[in-house]
Amino acid sequence: MPSTSSAHPLPHSILRRVSSSALLLGGMLAVLGATALASPWGAATAVDVLCGAALIVAGLAQILLSASAFDWRGFWLTLVCGSLSLMAGTGMLVLPKAGVEALVVFLGLVLVFESAAKLTAAWAFRDVYPLGWLLFDGLLTAVLGTVLLTSRPAEAGVLLGVFVGVNLLSSGLMFAATGWSLRHATRA
User: Fold this and answer.
1) Which residues of 135-151 are buried (b: 16+ CB within 10 A; e: fewer)?
2) What average pLDDT values come out for the chain (188 residues) when binned by 10 residues?
3) Residue 17 pLDDT
């Protein structure tokens, strides 16, 4: 039976493998995050291209599904939704600046609605969650959503790129810290 660390029930070989993978992933995400922060418009454009490509693939898949089932009850709905996805994705690729601006508005709306849910939950579940932290999180989310929704088009891409960069960098640091912690556990 393989030996295990006293702090972890997993064998050392698994801990070493996971720690190496976490360190590698953390380093890659941190580099991507730093790159996004160094070039926020480039990062926003990359997000736009990925979303546009995903919409095109989804649209084509829906159109192909509807083309194979003319007698299906959902034929028209699937055809229309697929066509809209295809048009939106194509628009995002052809007009990346407009696509970035649309993503910023969408993200801003999502954050405002998320903020409303968090603030409602802060009052509704104050016995379960720490009221202060949930209020803080809800208010911060509201500020971020409002910043996105009120930003000028010229700032929109920079904000999206910065948000993506910060997210990638913080995720990278978290995975790297996890990798270091697991590596330390294998040495104990």
Assistant:
1) bebbeebbebbeebeeb
2) 52 81 92 94 92 95 89 86 94 92 90 90 74 82 88 87 87 85 77
3) 86
Which residue in 63, 110, 113 sits closest to 84, CA to CA? 63
| Pair of tokens at residue 138 | 């809800």
Residue 132, both tokens: 């202060």
